[in-house]
Amino acid sequence: xxxxxxxxxxxxxxxxxxxxxxxxxxxxxxxxxxxxxxxxxxxxxxxxxxxxxxxxxxxxxxxxxxxxxxxxxxxxxxxxxxxxxxxxxxxxxxxxxxxxxxxxxxxxxxxxxxxxxxxxxxxxxxxxxxxxxxxxxxxxxxxxxxxxxxxxxxxxxxxxxxxxxxxxxxxxxxxxxxxxxxxxxxxxxxxxxxxxxxxxxxxxxxxxxxxxxxxxxxxxxxxxxxxxxxxxxxxxxxxxxxxxxxxxxxxxxxxxxxxxxxxxxxxxxxxxxxxxxxxxxxxxxxxxxxx
Length: 291
Hints:
Elements: H1 3-7, H2 11-14, E1 23-30, H3 33-64, H4 72-77, E2 91-99, E3 102-110, H5 111-138, H6 142-154, H7 156-168, H8 175-190, E4 194-198, H9 211-214, E5 225-239, E6 242-254, E7 260-262, E8 267-273, H10 279-288
Parallel strand pairs: 4-5
Antiparallel strand pairs: 1-3, 2-3, 5-6, 6-7, 6-8
Protein name: LPP20 family lipoprotein
Keywords: Lipoprotein
């Protein structure tokens, strides 16, 4: 940027304060004050995501070494997209200036409150899974305890990112430990069963998005068989002169007593595009975010 252009920018925008123990600082610019605020918070999200990327991969490396080699690719696939928007509930606009139609803001985010929110968000995901595992253990329901790994692995990516961020700020937490303990509990139960996945041929294009179910951890060649069925329906339509395709999926599992049970909740994904042959690829990408 030319020196004359830089000189017209607010000083707080060119030289924002460094983060402190109490505040995280970020700047933004936009066509109005709200747009500048959104830009500032987006910049902070990107900075925080970039800072924790290496830590998340380190966690995955540590965890994958605990399991069989055939599970490594499945664990890695869950970290293919690390950047994500954070929710900032405790921020204030510290400085604001308008120059030549552009709006500039300096925002500070209260760090302790933000980190506490991150921890609580992670626990809100993890605690219901831990409670469900406790119920299965009390009932000696080893089958559902083994299958609980799929729900746990669904949230692994976000939980590890939250843990990495808290670690970066030396914020004490037990997210990693509690997650690993829960996953090990599921794996120990899985050792008692053999595993089979049944996926209709017409849905085979979804295989890359269903990696947890294709790469379960801990199951053995035991005579007791756990079978997971994935069924679905594809509906073709058109939206605004473009092809549209909706996919509905449902998971079931067959108990050792021969009873069919629901596994998780139904999933729906939707794709719209001008090229029919690319709709399935769009469905796969959408599904990856939900499995």
